Amino acid sequence: MAELDLARTRKSLFTALIDARDAHGRGKVALEDPERQPITFGRLVLGALVLGRKLAASTQGGRPVGVLLPNVQGMAVTLFGLNAFGRVPALLNFTAGIKNLTAACEVAGLSTIVTSRRFVEQGKLDDVLAALSEGREVIWLEDVRKSITSIDKARGVIDSLLARWIHRKAGIGPDDTAVVLFTSGSEGKPKAVALSNANLVANAYQVKAHAGDVLQPDDTFFNPLPMFHSFGLTAGLLTPVLNGIKTVLYPSPLHYRQIPKLIAGTNATIVLATDTFLQGYARAAGEGDLRTVRYVIAGAERVKDETRRLWERYGTTILEGYGATECSPVIAVSLPHRNRPGSAGPLLPLIEARLDPVEGIHEGGRLVVRGPNVMKGYLDPDGSGRIDPPEGGWYDTGDIVTLEDGLVTIRGRAKRFAKVGGEMISLAAVETIAQGLWPEANHVVVALPDARKGEQVVLITDKPDADREALLAHAQAQGYPELWVPKAILVSGVPVLGSGKVDYAAATEMARRLQSML
Fold it and tell me: Are 126 and 237 in a shared domain?
């Protein structure tokens, strides 16, 4: 683990991109996507300046600009281009549904949305955009590109030589908001998270300092995760690019058959994904498709033992990480020499942590963290633009963790405990019990009200022949009492968010609805 100077993180995203260009060379490839037309660091800065100047002329400074784009090069150029001229992109989750997207636009006070006709058409998002465009201007990237003249391109070449001066005129400071992201809503209504330039740059540099020699200049990242998800944005784009490493972007993590082929075609050495997607890629991969992958960096959900076994046959090491959107997002990540299954690894440099006690929990505590990557705050839900910062710079993750030998182990969310007969039961632990018995199936455990015991535990699983007696026998063999075994088992597909995380709100509603029908 290398030392990290806090002062080095005090810069804007675009300044950090210029620094990467100057340190690693204008001709080095920065980005690639399924179009297979790589962009160098020099072209990325140039493209951001040309596109950014056009977008700045059509948008208002001082308020976020909605961005509804897939995980391709155009998204990255738009992100850096807006930052170059002092605009703040609010990255919209196009999988969230009209209701959540409308709420996000209102919270962020959006009056403009940047998108692409091709994307809207291919993603069948016409109805979504029609709803969002009411009272808002839509800027189509295709139209912007058509408006770019030879004079604009020539000016861009000059601007790229004077990039620092051009950007400095925008007056963007390290503590100014760089992006607005929206929490996944897995536990309820989304919140708008304001992350500063320094937050994002710090997290990208923290990961590199933490990983040391794990990340090499000639590595190639493969990132299929959407940038509206903080893991896809910071770990999948900013960490490699701002540290001079090539990244391959892919627009959907759900293309299980295509992704292994592109990993092989681009000789990717590091893959980012969630457990759910990793299982799909490993099972769909042809012989040799994943042979170049040295490491998988997994986040957003716990990595199952079965997933590790699937990737071990390719000689790949899975490094499990942990984070929160409010922390830009990475808080901890495993290292090859500190890689204990079930653990999320050591904390990143410059992060302070404490464990607050929780009534009824006897092992570990509620993790609260502080560091340069902790958000500016939440946007006022009334859409005023006011930002409510975390008290004293400390962010309460809401996760129950243990810190043993410097390794972070997640025991469950504070909200993901049920109180059954007066005893606190970890729903995540019950999921682990089910996973141990039926490793190839997907499971989620939720809590529903119970008139007699306060709450009851319900298992939703996609294993067709799941049997409670078999689960009870397995749990007791592992030393768990019957109280921990789900009272009911519901066979159904497990609802998943676009980010790859389990949709707990939808799962709870599903269980409630199915229970009422029984």
Answer: yes
How far, in Å, CA of 29 to CA of 266, rounded?
12
Among 441, 356, 347, CA closest to 399: 356
Q: Within this chain, do residues 227 and 376 fall inside the same structural domain, yes or no?
A: yes
Q: Domain limits at 15?
A: 6-404
* 453 and 510 share one domain: yes
- 104 and 90 in contact (C-beta within 8 Å)? yes
**Core vs surface per residue 415-442: b (16+ CB within 10 A) or e:** ebbbebeeeebbbbebbbbbbbbbeebb
Residues 457 and 364 in one domain: no
| 200 found inside a domain | yes
What is the tens place of the pLDDT at every residue in 451-502? 666 678 888 888 888 888 888 888 888 767 777 788 888 888 888 876 667 7
The DSSP code for 248 is E
Tens of pLDDT, residue by residue over 349-363, are 999 999 988 776 778
Query: How far is the C-alpha of 125 from the C-alpha of 137, rounded, in Å?
Result: 16
Amino acid at 91: L
Query: What is the DSSP pairing of strand 112-115 with strand 330-333?
Result: unpaired
Report the pLDDT value the prediction gives residue 165, as an integer from 0 to 100. Answer: 94
CATH of the domain at 499: 3.30.300.30
For 357, residues 6+ apart whose C-beta sits below 8 A from its C-beta are 365, 366
Distances (CA, A) of 436 to 154, 313, 475: 61, 20, 9
425 and 323, same domain (yes or no): no
Q: What is the mean pLDDT of residues 400-414?
A: 83
**The pTM is what?**
0.82
Is residue 66 helix, strand or coil?
strand
413 within 8 A of 187, measured Cβ to Cβ: yes
In angstroms, the Cα distances linking 427 to 380, 413, 446 are 32, 9, 7
Mark whether 233 and 161 lie in a shared domain: yes
Lowest mean pLDDT among 98-112, 165-179, 217-231: 98-112
Helix (H) or strand (E) holding 506: helix 504-517
Q: Which of 443-455 are b and which e, b meaning 16 or more Cβ less than 10 Å from the residue's Cβ? A: bbbbbeebeebeb
The pLDDT value recorded for residue 1 is 60
Q: What type of residue sits at position 168?
A: R
Q: Is residue 485 in a domain?
A: yes
User: Which residue, 259, 260, 333, is CA-closest to 299?
Assistant: 333
- Please check whether residues 270 and 320 belong to one and the same domain: yes
d(CA 248, CA 263) in angstroms, rounded, equals: 9
Q: Is 395 in the same domain as 432?
A: no
Number of domains in the chain: 2
